[in-house]
Specification:
about 200 residues, mainly alpha, Rna Polymerase Sigma Factor, Chain: A, Arc Repressor Mutant, subunit A, 8 helices, globular
Length: about 200
């Protein structure tokens, strides 16, 4: 998490006074964590890159409206989370079949090398793959408020206070959302875990 509020404020001020190179500095600092958040939310490399770029476009468009003491990390993640949510809703209404190779989970746009065609995968590997696929589906189905809190806490290592600033709720509210998200994931994964134990 490249959180450096002093540098962010300095670059935001430079951007507001016409120094467009400040946007490049902000992009260099924030592009990777924003892309990572977007990828975990939408599970598509191209869409995640587009959403991260759109966040910077919005920053440039709204630069003069932001206060000099704006918490830029909170602003960026709030904007991106809203974009991801809107994109996810649009995708649900307009489903498409991707012609891309499946993503490997690291934003590389291709699947990891698998076993040779003549050697079947080990049972443990299949169980692990099933569990990961179930977790993926459970994450996708989480309501946006729970998903955003979970991704920011577990993958961006943000404190409750900052997540609260992004999601517009209290620290106690963040704690509740995280609890509900974990409960939902546990309930979704329980059948798989039970099946694995029985085997």
């Amino acid at each position: 998490m490249p959180s450096d509020p002093t540098r962010d404020r300095s670059d935001l001020l430079s951007l507001q006074t016409g120094d467009d190179s400040a946007l490049n500095r902000l992009m260099a600092r924030w592009e990777r964590p924003l892309f990572a958040f977007a990828w975990r939310y939408v599970r598509n490399t191209t869409d995640a890159r587009d959403l991260a770029v759109e966040t910077f476009v919005k920053l440039h468009q709204q630069r003069t409206r932001l206060r000099p003491d704006t918490n830029l990390s909170a602003w960026l993640f709030t904007t991106l989370a809203n974009l991801c949510h809107n994109h996810h809703r649009w995708r649900r209404r307009h489903p498409t079949v991707s012609l891309d190779a499946p993503d490997d989970g690291h934003g590389n746009g291709h699947a990891p090398p698998g076993p040779q065609a003549d050697s079947p995968p080990a049972p443990d590997a299949l169980e692990h793959k099933e569990a990961l696929a179930a977790l993926d589906q459970a994450l996708i189905k989480l309501p946006p408020d729970l998903k955003t809190a979970l991704l920011l806490h577990h993958f961006e290592a943000m404190p409750y206070r900052e997540i609260g600033a992004i999601t517009g709720c209290s620290e106690r509210g963040v704690e509740t959302r995280l609890y509900r998200a974990r409960q939902a994931l546990r309930a979704a994964l329980e059948p798989i875990l039970r099946e694995t134990t029985v085997r």
